[in-house]
Design a protein that fits this description.
This protein has about 110 residues and is an all-alpha fold. The protein has 4 helices and no strands. It is elongated.
Amino acid sequence: PEELKGDVLEMVRLTQEQLDVLSQAIEALFSNYDQLLRDNSLLDSVKHYEELVDDRELCMIKRIFEMEIPLAEKSHLRYFISRVADISDLIDDIGDAVQVMVVLRKV
């Protein structure tokens, strides 16, 4: 539905930004490890974007079930929104793995 279009595009934009930050963190892991070790802001940003996407997902799902559309359509929309949010969750999981690599490399 048109009333969800802006929110979906915002979720995608946030996910793209999250991926950009993760890419920077992975690059720093190999090229500027000491900086990554001292400054967790890149990996913290990955987590922050994931939280923003999760918040947007929950708000959208709530709005979907308040809409006057058939239940089957609500279910399909919820599934779609959740799959888009899953991308952000996967990026966050990779960020967690990078964090583990930073710690293990320190030892």
